[in-house]
Amino acid sequence: MKKDFLSILDVPREQAHNLVKRALWMKMNDFRSGILQGKTMILLFEKASTRTKVSFEVSINHLGGHHVFMTPADSQLGRSEPLRDTARVLSRYAQGLVVRTYGQENLEELAAHGSIPVINALSDEFHPCQVMSDLLTIYERTPRFEELKISWVGDGNNMAQSWINAAVHFPFRLTLAVPRGFEPRKDVLNRAKDLGARVHLTHDPREAVDGANYINTDVWASMGHEHEQASRARAFAGFCVNDELLKWAHSDARVLHCLPAHRGEEISEEVMEGERSIVWDQAENRLHMQKAVLEWIYKE
Ligand code: CP
Ligand code: NVA
Predict the structure, then answer these.
(1) Ligand 2 first shell, C-beta below 6 A
(2) What is the pLDDT of residue 233?
(3) Which residues approach ligand 1 with their CB closer than 6 A?
(4) How far, in Å, CA of 29 to CA of 23, rounded?
(5) What distance in angstroms lies between residue 279's CA and the mean position of ligand 1's atoms?
(6) Residues of 34-69 as b/e, b for ≥16 C-beta within 10 angstroms?
(7) CB neighbours of 244 closer than 8 A, spacing ≥ 6?
(8) Taking the chain, what is the end-to-end CA distance rounded to the nearest angstrom?
(9) Domains plus CATH for the chain?
(10) What is the whole-number distance in angstroms between the Cα of residue 194 and the centre of ligand 1?
(11) pTM of the entire predicted model
(12) Per DSSP, what are the bridge partners of residue 214?
């Protein structure tokens, strides 16, 4: 059966842990292989990307494969060819689809109608490849997840919801602080809690950061919400990860941001460029985790 990777919960718990360990080993050993030799991956992106696009292209190359990059603007998708037809056609040419899109239902439709694996390269609901590589960024510093408090400060968006899913498989405590009206989806939160995740939601950034070992944030207006930038800036006042907020954190706390960042909004210039920031390692780790994910999907 083909393996789709549409959310972190598509990966069984033990295999999710193995992905983090394997990605670290790949990083340490500058890993190359021929596992994708003769295979073509199609990158179908409906939204902009720097890290995800390039780290997938490079990792496919490091594994001996080939990629084709397409967008709606340069394909018949832009002229309303249905996704289900696109999925069936692309399955005749290639061995995998890496997709950045809007609704999660687009990924589900591609996965249901195509016969090749589909990887979520970001949707409105989830960003699983990013959060898996963020887990690597934490693991390479502090491998005992059960001792960690991880906090989320900002929008209850695709990143926040993937962190909630991660808390199902990894035993850290997760506290999310979001402004009222910007909560993550209730079904995502409730499912995680039912599955045993230690997740707590608050509207107070100080409570989320209090004693935290790792603090995550992300833009206030995700792709597709740019027109709400001004109203969101008002709603998110007080949710900037700055030196003042970090006084509440653990003395060794580190700050993550999936990037791109809006300095002066969700993160201050001082924090972004300061000694607590691990955002550049975090960006690098996208490459190593993509390789581990691709190997997980394509190994026999
Ligand atoms: N973090 C992330 O997914 O970045 P890009 O939008 O540049 O791919
Ligand atoms: N939440 C952001 C993440 C970008 C990598 C967005 O969806 O735009």
Answers:
(1) 122, 157-159, 218-219, 222-223, 258
(2) 97
(3) 49-53, 122, 130, 258-259
(4) 10
(5) 12
(6) ebbeebbbbbbbbbebebbbebbbebbebbebebee
(7) none
(8) 11
(9) 8-127+286-298 (3.40.50.1370), 142-277 (3.40.50.1370)
(10) 30
(11) 0.98
(12) 150, 254
- Asked if residue 279 lies in contact with residue 256, where contact means CB atoms within 8 angstroms, the answer is yes
SS in 3 state form for 216-229?
EECCCCCCCCHHHH
Taking only the tens place, the pLDDT of each residue in 13-58 is 999 999 999 999 999 999 999 999 999 999 999 999 999 999 999 9
pLDDT tens for residues 161-184? 999 999 999 999 999 999 999 999
Beta bridge partners of 43: 69, 98
Report the separation in Å between the CA atom of 260 and the middle of ligand 2, taken as the mean of its atom positions: 8
Among residues 95, 155, 218, 288, which one is catalytic?
A: 218
Ligand 1, atom 7, lies closest to the CA of 50
Q: Provide φ and ψ at 262, rounded to 5°.
A: -110, 95
The per-residue pLDDT for range 122-155, each reduced to its tens digit, is: 999 999 999 999 999 999 999 999 999 999 999 9
Q: Is 281 a catalytic residue?
A: no
Residue 280 has pLDDT above 90, yes or no: yes
